[in-house]
From TrEMBL:
<dbReference type="Pfam" id="PF00155">
    <property type="entry name" value="Aminotran_1_2"/>
</dbReference>
<keyword id="KW-0032">Aminotransferase</keyword>
<dbReference type="InterPro" id="IPR015422">
    <property type="entry name" value="PyrdxlP-dep_Trfase_small"/>
</dbReference>
<keyword id="KW-0808">Transferase</keyword>
<comment type="similarity">
    <text>Belongs to the class-I pyridoxal-phosphate-dependent aminotransferase family. Alanine aminotransferase subfamily.</text>
</comment>
<comment type="subunit">
    <text>Homodimer.</text>
</comment>
<dbReference type="InterPro" id="IPR045088">
    <property type="entry name" value="ALAT1/2-like"/>
</dbReference>
<dbReference type="InterPro" id="IPR015421">
    <property type="entry name" value="PyrdxlP-dep_Trfase_major"/>
</dbReference>
<dbReference type="GO" id="GO:0030170">
    <property type="term" value="F:pyridoxal phosphate binding"/>
</dbReference>
<comment type="pathway">
    <text>Amino-acid degradation; L-alanine degradation via transaminase pathway; pyruvate from L-alanine: step 1/1.</text>
</comment>
<dbReference type="InterPro" id="IPR004839">
    <property type="entry name" value="Aminotransferase_I/II_large"/>
</dbReference>
<keyword id="KW-0663">Pyridoxal phosphate</keyword>
<comment type="function">
    <text>Catalyzes the reversible transamination between alanine and 2-oxoglutarate to form pyruvate and glutamate.</text>
</comment>
<protein>
    <recommendedName>
        <fullName>alanine transaminase</fullName>
        <ecNumber>2.6.1.2</ecNumber>
    </recommendedName>
</protein>
<dbReference type="GO" id="GO:0005737">
    <property type="term" value="C:cytoplasm"/>
</dbReference>
<dbReference type="InterPro" id="IPR015424">
    <property type="entry name" value="PyrdxlP-dep_Trfase"/>
</dbReference>
<dbReference type="GO" id="GO:0042853">
    <property type="term" value="P:L-alanine catabolic process"/>
</dbReference>
Length: 522
């Protein structure tokens, strides 16, 4: 149908017909849209996930597929995957939201004490009021105490704490402060590859220069200092590198960086005068007995005053990950060290534009940094729930690695921490075919997997990978039983896929290997 004959109520038309017979074009079209918005890509909620939603709705309407449910392993959304909320956290937020419950005997006194303290810090003693742009003062103070205890006495000043809308809000705000210049003086941002697509998306939106440094897949995704130097020197030819971003524990790669590695990064940043952004939202998610979380701040302190008093460092944490998995509250914080005082005032101004983070999310963040103590009535239940969540994640991390490594043509590094595996798949004949057709091998692999099995994963290309390698990211968040189903379906699909596109060379790993691995987790 011609656009001039569309219904006057068709709001999707680019050109609409007025009653007087004249036409009026829309102001905002793909032609006039900000090109930086078009450049943004966010694979975690990309076309595969959109397709999964369509299939899910089709199943609910009775459409036939070779499976009965969609298993979403594309995003780190713990509660959507069946994880139960931490009781104490929900109690405190409930009390803050509906203070009349403070008179109820159904709530423990330690939850009431925390709720009263938070409410006293809110305007009108209501969670519905705006807070200061940096967040509620008493919650910022609790964050500082938490950091000081976590880092074994390294001092923390609550004036350096900013509560945020999840960690993402803080990360984007700091990047906005750092991006400036034109041409060869344009700010360059060093990010790990593979990376969490928030970084590449924000860099695209801000028209900054993305500087890739590659993690060492053959060494369990370790960060190689020589690779940092290579990336930095190459980038200096066309931009001004100003900031280095680190995700520890890693997303999507699941590695936990060693203290020595962190020292090398901080020394590198000190020598090259780089701002350091340390994404530490998975600090509670460490599963390997050989690994330990080291905060960048603590390591910086231990390197001595020359480093601790000069290197500009922003560290980020969130309610969304860890053992709480409270993604929907959008709670988080950042601690920013060694910021110029005038720049600090500019940061507060920038944060004030969004008024304040959700105050309910701030309350949730307070519970994470100020949990029940051993002498308090809620401690035993809280400790039991926290241990159960982290224990189950540790078991699923091990199970995912072991089972994937029984599948011919798939190689998976140990999932030392975080919530994801990022296995490499070998699909060479398939790659050659699709490249000749101008299609993305990763995307088509994940699309076929979804359509044939109902499993929703994210193509590795959405996170970045070395040229000639192909991966996918999957979460370890589904329940243990559902994760076993997912891994078995994935194995069967991949072997069928290999038979179709590449001959198997008598693989040492077989279905028997997979079943043997599964037995350990029954």
């Amino acid at each position: 149908m011609s656009q001039h004959h569309l219904s006057p109520y068709n709001t999707e038309a680019t050109v609409v017909l007025r009653e007087n017979g004249k036409t009026r074009e829309k102001t905002l079209t793909m032609g006039t849209l900000n090109p930086q918005v078009k450049a943004v890509e966010y694979a975690v909620r990309g076309p595969i996930v959109t397709k999964a939603g369509d299939i899910e709705r089709g199943l609910q309407q009775g459409q036939k597929h070779p499976f009965t449910e969609v298993i979403k392993a594309n995003i780190g959304d713990s509660h959507a995957m069946g994880q139960k909320p931490i009781t104490f956290l929900r109690q405190v937020v409930a009390l803050c939201s509906f203070p009349e419950l403070l008179d109820s005997s159904s709530f423990p006194e330690d939850a009431k004490q925390r709720a009263r303290r938070i409410l006293q810090g809110c305007g009108g003693q209501s969670l519905g009021s705006y807070s200061a742009s940096q967040g509620v003062d008493c919650i910022r103070q609790d964050v500082a105490v938490y950091i000081e205890q976590r880092d074994k006495g390294v001092p923390a000043d609550w004036d350096n704490i900013y509560l945020t809308t999840g960690a993402s809000d803080g990360i984007v705000s700091i990047l906005k402060m750092l991006v400036s210049g034109q041409g060869r003086s344009r700010s360059g941002v060093m990010i790990p590859i593979p990376q969490y697509p928030l970084y590449s998306a924000a860099i695209s939106e801000m028209e900054a220069v993305q500087i890739n440094y590659y993690l060492d897949e053959d060494n369990c995704w370790a960060l190689d200092i020589n690779e940092l130097h290579r990336a930095y020197q190459a980038a200096k030819e066309h931009c001004h590198p100003r900031v280095i971003c680190i995700i520890n524990p890693g997303n999507p790669t699941g590695q936990v960086q060693s203290k020595k590695c962190i020292e090398e990064v901080l020394h590198f940043a000190y020598e090259e005068n780089l701002f350091v952004m340390s994404d530490e939202v998975y600090q509670d998610n460490v599963y390997s007995p050989d690994c330990q979380f080291h905060s960048f701040k603590k390591v910086l302190y231990e390197m001595g005053p020359e480093y601790f008093n000069t290197v500009e460092l922003a560290s980020f944490h969130s309610t969304s990950k860890g053992y709480s998995g409270e993604c929907g509250f959008r709670g988080g914080y950042m601690e920013v060290l060694n910021l110029d005082l005038e720049v600090k005032a500019q940061l507060v101004k920038l944060l004030s534009i969004r008024l304040c983070p959700p105050v309910s999310g701030q309350a949730a963040m307070d519970v994470i940094v100020n949990p029940p103590l051993p002498h308090e009535p809620s401690y035993l239940q809280f400790h039991k729930e926290k241990s159960a969540v982290l224990g189950a994640l540790a078991e699923k991390a091990q199970m995912t690695e072991q089972i994937l490594n029984t599948v011919p043509g798939i190689k998976c590094n140990p999932v030392q921490g975080a919530m994801y595996a990022f296995p490499q798949k070998q699909v060479f004949k398939f790659v050659s075919l699709l490249q000749s057709l101008g299609m993305s091998p990763d995307m088509m692999y994940c699309l076929r997997l979804l359509e044939e099995t109902g499993i929703c994963l994210v193509p590795g290309s959405g996170f970045g990978q070395r040229e000639g390698t192909y991966h996918f990211r999957m979460t370890i968040l589904p329940t243990t039983e559902k994760l076993k189903v997912l891994l078995e379906k994935l194995r069967d699909f991949h072997i069928k896929f290999l038979k179709e596109y590449a001959p198997l060379e008598e693989p040492k790993r077989s279905e028997d290997d997979t079943q043997e691995a599964l037995k350990q987790f029954r």
